[in-house]
TrEMBL record:
Gene3D superfamilies tied to this protein: Dihydrodipicolinate Reductase, domain 2
Pfam families from the UniProt entry: GFO_IDH_MocA_C (PF02894)
Coiled-coil residues: none
Ranges for domain Gfo/Idh/MocA-like oxidoreductase C-terminal: 18-163
Lineage, broadest ranks: Bacteria, Pseudomonadati, Pseudomonadota, Gammaproteobacteria, Enterobacterales
Superkingdom of the organism of origin: Bacteria
Name of the featured protein: Oxidoreductase
């Protein structure tokens, strides 16, 4: 059993996706994708243990987000690899968590050059897409501290499109 520190449950991108799911506007959720990608094609040789890789370093947090929404999965499939430097622990993973008809895909790669949505959610009544990761770290690196104007400002609230009870397609941005 892996129990992560649940700090990623407070990421603005996750909270936005959670709000879209919990609104009920999407209907029954059938698929969720969560991505935490980078473009860092060069990896210095830094051999380590499996827990030093992307899966245990970041994956436990992004999987915890999904588990906090849907609970313990019925079963899990995964692909964990080191693509940039075979001497290092993993830098790429995909985990698929299955909950009846719902499939949640959690991915991280260091070889994604074009921004991919952070969250993609499909339900029987609509879809939600959210670009951009939580901005707290970006703010701190720019020396913008909590409580200061602009801290963790997230320009992307996502796009929610669904069919309402009257059969009308509604788009919220």
């Amino acid at each position: 059993t892996v129990t992560p520190y649940q700090n990623r449950r407070f990421d603005s991108c996750f909270l936005t996706a959670k709000k879209a799911i919990e609104s009920g506007k999407l209907g029954e959720i059938v698929e969720v994708e969560s991505h935490f990608d980078y473009y860092r094609p060069v990896a210095e040789t830094k051999p380590g243990l499996p827990q030093d890789g992307a899966f245990y370093g970041l994956g436990v947090h992004t999987m915890d987000q999904i588990i906090s929404l849907f609970g313990r999965p019925d079963h899990v499939a995964y692909d964990i690899r080191s693509l940039r430097n075979k001497a290092n622990p993993d830098d790429t993973f995909e985990a698929q968590l299955f909950y009846g008809d719902l499939k949640a895909i959690v991915k991280t790669s260091h070889l994604v050059k074009i921004d991919y949505p952070k969250f993609i959610v499909h339900g029987k009544k609509g879809s939600f897409i959210k670009y951009g990761i939580d901005q707290q770290e970006t703010s701190l690196k720019a020396n913008i501290m909590p409580g200061e104007p602009g801290f963790a400002a997230d320009d992307s609230v996502g796009v929610l499109e669904y069919v309402n009870d009257e059969g009308v397609t509604v788009r919220e941005e």
